């Protein structure tokens, strides 16, 4: 497993080693809902390992979730159900660290759907298996591991895993996080004016 005690740069370089990690993103029917789309790429190469919609019927897509990702029940017609998708996910992640931009959310949704379907989540239930790219990005920006910063990936699973990989590569290369720094500057200006900013 990658060590969380490394600096963000050393951690990211370890994550980019061949076969060390994969990046996962899910889109859901709602914040506490079921997975309706999932993508997984190899962290080192960017190779797409899984990219599919997921039929979550009878769960309905909440209007607020639709506003985020634009997916409808019609889009999910003919998509595989969670048990089939999970079998692929479990095989892909069996020997890798699982990275996600907001790992707590993505792992939570995977575990939720496994419970719903009566599936043993095997290694994906292990908290140490999942590591959070957003936390390490925030740490690099001086916000600490509990900081929050939007990804800006477009809210479709494949676009988001690719955007997460770009953040990972930026951390590994030691390049400045100009997007993150810009958000922090906006936050500071708004806080000085007494305005609450959601980022």
Which H/E pattern describes the elements? HEEEHHHEHEHHH
Q: On the 0-100 scale, what is the average pLDDT? A: 91
Q: Count of helices?
A: 8
- Are there runs of 5+ residues with pLDDT below 50, and where? none
Name a few traits of the molecule.
nuclease; single chain; 199 residues; alpha/beta; Ribonucl_H; 8 helices; Nucleotidyltransferase, domain 5; globular; exonuclease; hydrolase; RNaseH-like_sf
Textual characterization of the structure:
The protein has helices at residues 8-15, 63-69, 73-76, 82-93, 103-117, 133-140, 157-173, 178-192, and strands at residues 21-28, 35-42, 48-53, 97-100, 130-132. The chain is α/β, with parallel strands linked by helices and 199 residues long. The protein has a single domain (8-192), classed as Nucleotidyltransferase, domain 5, CATH 3.30.420.10. The protein has a five-stranded mixed beta sheet, with helices on both faces. The radius of gyration is 17 Å and the shape is globular.
Concise description?
The chain is α/β, with parallel strands linked by helices and 199 residues long.
Task: Produce the secondary structure layout.
Layout: H1 8-15, E1 21-28, E2 35-42, E3 48-53, H2 63-69, H3 73-76, H4 82-93, E4 97-100, H5 103-117, E5 130-132, H6 133-140, H7 157-173, H8 178-192
Parallel strand pairs: 1-4, 4-5
Antiparallel strand pairs: 1-2, 2-3
Pfam family, one: RNase_T
Protein name: DNA polymerase-3 subunit epsilon
InterPro entries: Ribonucl_H, RNaseH-like_sf, RNaseH_sf
